Amino acid sequence: MASKVTVDPGKLTQFSAKVLQKVGVPEEDAERTARMLVAADLRGIDSHGVSHLGPLYIKRIKEGFINPKPQIRMVSHARATAVVDGDRGLGFVVGHYAMTEALMRAGQTGAGFVSVRNSTHCGAASTYAMMALPKNMIGIAMTTGGRGMVAPGSVGRGAGINVISVAVPTQGNAPFVLDMATTVVAGSKFEIALRSGQTTIPKGWAVDKAGKPLTDPKKYAEEGALLPLGGLPETGAFKGFGLSVMVDILCSILAGSVSISELLTQPNTALRANHFFGALKIDGFMPADDFARAMAGMVKVYHNLPRAPGVERIYLAGEVEHEIENQRRHGIPLDPQVIASLQELAAELGVEYDL
């Protein structure tokens, strides 16, 4: 297998923004989207970074599934809550708008929540939850991720690969950043497996149309469905399925949209996504300094837990990504297939390739 190519994060951001502008995305929206894509790669979330720039976002803009110039509007609102219609815009643009609204409401009332309908794929959910950290707030982000989960007791794709993220500031430590699919793994893990030349994936990730274990990553797109977090019914599948439905309620039903389970019965909705964003102002609950000290104490307890043989450190959610981000600030390693897709975009759209 060919080795990865290391690229400068700043140049990668500029290149991605230029590509997006070439297909009609306004400059400010293109730059914001590019920053968010590269932010995922910086944190090691390679399944949601620039690998999706051409095959997903540019492709869907050109095919008319994503509106490059959406008229985002608020369809209902109160002091602490709102519903936003994204007009099929880039999920990054719609998501940033909605999370900004949630943060503004939290600053005024102590808590803010915004449900979003009629949007599209928004990348890594943690990108939005982490917007709360500089404001000393707790951030919450959820999104529907496409109909790709097998419901316990069913066969085939019947529920959403829905996602939950929560970001919490800490004192003197990496922030706590949970970013998880409600399935055993994210669907994009299969893209990574194929790019890296893997011929098998672990048993327990997915099943075929008959409900039998699927271990060939090439077969997933055509006939696979992801298992819920927990795996099988006897090992806790109803937990992941329940979380998926909960996310669907907050993102879709609460926003006045169709649920993931209804997508196949509704025309022109298969590539849509709905989101839910929230922010909690810490000093609306307790003094922020007291919270920071309590968080630092909790983190210390977890770090000091007895370690299994061969384990050097106990990690909390977000700490591995924080370490990777520090390592990648001067260069992001990209798979040769990703580099090739970026070079193809440059040639197709007339953008200088200078990575």
Walkthrough of the structure:
The structure is a single chain. By secondary structure, the chain is of the alpha+beta class. It folds into three domains: 106 residues, Orthogonal Bundle (Hypothetical Oxidoreductase Yiak, Chain: A, domain 1); 183 residues, Malate/L-lactate/L-sulpholactate dehydrogenase, NADPH binding domain (Ribosomal Protein S8, Chain: A, domain 1, 2-Layer Sandwich); 42 residues, Hypothetical oxidoreductase yiak, domain 3 (Wheat Germ Agglutinin (Isolectin 2), domain 1). 38% of the residues lie in helices and 18% in strands. The chain has eleven helices and 14 strands. The strands form four sheets. It has a seven-stranded mixed beta sheet with strand order 2-3-4-13-5-8-9. A three-stranded antiparallel beta sheet has the order 11-10-12. Strands 1-14 form a two-stranded antiparallel sheet. β10 and β11 form a beta hairpin. α1 packs antiparallel against α2. It starts with a strand and ends in a 6-residue tail after the last helix. The relative contact order is 0.17. The mean pLDDT is 92.
